[in-house]
Amino acid sequence: MERELTIQQVAEATGLSIHTLRYYERCNLIAPIHRAKNGHRRYSSKDTSWIEFLTRLRMTGMPIRQMQEYAALMREQPEAIQQRRIILEKHQQQVLEQLDQLQQNRQDSPTSKQMRV
Q1: Is this prediction's pTM over 0.90?
Q2: CB 68 within 8 A of CB 29
Q3: CA 65 centroid distance within chain
Q4: Cα–Cα dist 67/69, whole Å
Q5: What is d(CA 58, CA 24) in angstroms, rounded to the nearest whole number?
Q6: Whose CB among 29, 62, 69, 74 lies 3.0–4.6 Å from 24's, allowing a Cys bridge?
Q7: Distance, CA of 79 to CA of 85 (rounded, Å)
Q8: What contacts 75, CB < 8 A, 6 or more positions away?
């Protein structure tokens, strides 16, 4: 039998707050979590892996609405691999453009020019 984790254990494992985990469930980023007889949430390893994936998306700056679109596709159309890939590739392009802009800003900054002297 698979070991299930409490919300506190998942919060500690993922670095997210309990509030954030509840919010992710409320806004449909994660599917409704299984509950024990006492009503407490019990997360599976699959749930935890999905939450870790969502955390990575947030760390790259993906907006919640885009994450919700991706999550809905995962739940409602698991065969829609191409549509999910398009979302990720579009986001990747945006991240690369931001990185390029940041690099350009760094090179153009007065501090950077002084350092080269």
Answers
A1: no
A2: yes
A3: 11
A4: 5
A5: 12
A6: 29
A7: 11
A8: 31
Query: Rounded to an integer, what distance in angstroms lies between the CA atom of residue 11 and that of residue 15?
Result: 6
Instruction: Report pLDDT digits (tens) over 79-90.
Output: 999 999 999 999
Alpha helices in the chain (DSSP H): 7-14, 18-26, 45-59, 64-76, 81-108, 110-116
Q: Locate 102 and state its tokens.
A: 């940041």
Query: CB–CB of 42/33 below 8 Å?
Result: yes
Distance CA 18, CA 31 (A): 16
pLDDT tens, position by position, 33-60: 999 999 999 999 999 999 999 999 999 9
φ and ψ of 60, to 5 deg = -85, 0
Single-letter residue type at 96? L
Distance CA 84, CA 75 (A): 11
Residue 8 C-alpha from the chain's centroid: 19
Whole-angstrom Cα distance, residue 71 to residue 78? 10
Please tell me the distance from the alpha carbon of residue 26 to that of residue 79, in angstroms, as a whole number: 24
